[in-house]
Amino acid sequence: MASAQAFHDVQFPVALSFGASGGPERRTDIVTLANGHEERNTPWAHARRRYDAGLGLRAIEDVQAVLAFFEARRGPLYGFRWKDWLDWRSAPPGRPIDALDQQVGLGDGETTAFQLVKRYGEDAHPYLRPITRPVPGSLRIAVDGDPVAEGAGVVVDHATGVLRFDVAPPVGALVTAGFEFDVPARFDTETLIGSVAGFEAGTLPEIPVVEIRA
Question: Where is the DUF2460 domain (predicted)?
Fold first, then answer.
């Protein structure tokens, strides 16, 4: 029996996730009042992403690779890393990752732990998305623009996306970071259905994958 947070720290084959479709889902409760106005509320602070991995399959060998990955995860029992090719890095497309990409905190002289986040929107109402699965080796970290090397002043928890500094950044110091990241996900089905004849005829199986809170 596995716990609700059971997770295998392995990545879904990136060549197959490249062709997948998907994106963020938001949950909003909308009530139309008698006067025609609306009340809108959400029980979700963060979006949940959904994907169809079946669209990334190009050969029967791809089907076999997904089948093996599905079985190794025991279907939806264990989570895994998923690379969302539409949104997988801190920097805009075409620009290299830089330690100044994202502001993740402001020093107060006491706090030593900072959660990696990615900012969406440049207006007065940005969304800050917690990043919990940074890609090892991809991080660039700075305090007030001065680089801080991972393992030499700061430790990164690659299972939570939390930065832990040996010494608290001083009051008013900007803590910034650049990184690649994966989405914690699981299969959203207990059954994979397909056939060799159907695949060769151009029929792709649906393989739903959903983001998890991990």
Answer: 8-213
